[in-house]
Specification:
This protein is an alpha/beta fold. About 45% of the residues lie in helices and about 5% in strands. The protein contains nine helices and six strands; from the N terminus they run ααβαββαααββααβα. It has a four-stranded parallel sheet, covered by helices on one side. Strands 3-5 form a two-stranded parallel ribbon.
Length: about 240
């Protein structure tokens, strides 16, 4: 996630400084994106000399809501000619301030489906469609994939899984409405993209989120709505190339 200055601040500062010093753009964030594209192109060219063509898939990753970043990345120095796949992470969630105002699971699902919430499921689906439209309009040979995706409800300031609003988040991940939300998300991606990687394998709920498709390997399917939704799509994927 070269764009993610929140989680990877030092990485972002490095890319901003390198992009600005090379004169790639006067805006520090666009300079960082172009530096990421430049270094990716360098690595693609090295890889082409080492690997046979049928073993090389060249990937750039972008920020799901930002088609401007997509075009910044792919237009830089015609890097799009050397890219096979553009990868995004379509998650649905809510801003922390909104999440901290919920008083129950119903409120959380209200946020999931609220068109005014820029992180909602409808907003995320709109972002997927916009990313696909951008690729089809300018770079039709590049495939769209999801390197991660799903629900993303988490309070990063939490110190215990018992802290509010974690119990509501955990309960929502067990709620059958989460099955419906995952079906909507993956159906939308299936119509617009080529490969969806759900996050993540079975894992117990914790203060840093409820990420697992199950909370443990032997959890019954009927208690794991995210897992049941994904089972509708289980298949051995054909190669992208």
């Amino acid at each position: 996630e070269a764009w993610n200055g929140g989680t990877f601040a030092q990485q972002m500062i490095y890319m901003q400084n390198r992009g600005l010093s090379l004169g790639l753009d006067s805006d520090k964030n666009r300079a960082a994106a172009k530096f990421y594209a430049k270094r990716s192109l360098d690595i693609f060219n090295i890889s082409k000399r080492i690997l046979p063509k049928n073993r090389l898939v060249r990937v750039l990753a972008g920020f799901t809501p930002s088609t401007r970043m997509t075009t910044d990345l792919l237009s830089y120095s015609n890097v799009h000619r050397e890219v096979d796949v553009f990868a995004i992470a379509p998650y649905f969630y809510a801003p922390v301030n909104d999440l901290m105002s919920i008083r129950g699971v119903d409120d959380l699902f209200g946020l999931i489906n609220d068109n005014a919430n820029r992180k909602s499921l409808p907003s995320t689906i709109k972002n997927i469609i916009n990313q696909k439209k951008t690729l089809m309009r300018h770079y039709p040979n590049i495939k769209l994939v999801a390197y991660e995706g799903g629900q993303h409800f988490v309070d990063y300031n939490s110190t215990s899984k018992r802290n509010y609003p974690n119990p509501y988040i955990f309960a929502a991940n067990k709620d059958q409405r989460m099955f419906k939300a995952y079906i909507e998300l993956i159906d939308a991606f299936k119509k617009n993209g080529d490969l969806f990687m759900a996050f993540r394998a079975p894992e117990a709920n914790a203060k840093f989120g409820s990420w697992g498709l199950k909370v443990h390997l032997r959890e019954p399917d009927h208690l794991a709505p995210k897992y049941r939704a994904l089972k509708k799509y289980f298949f051995l994927p054909k190669p992208l190339f």
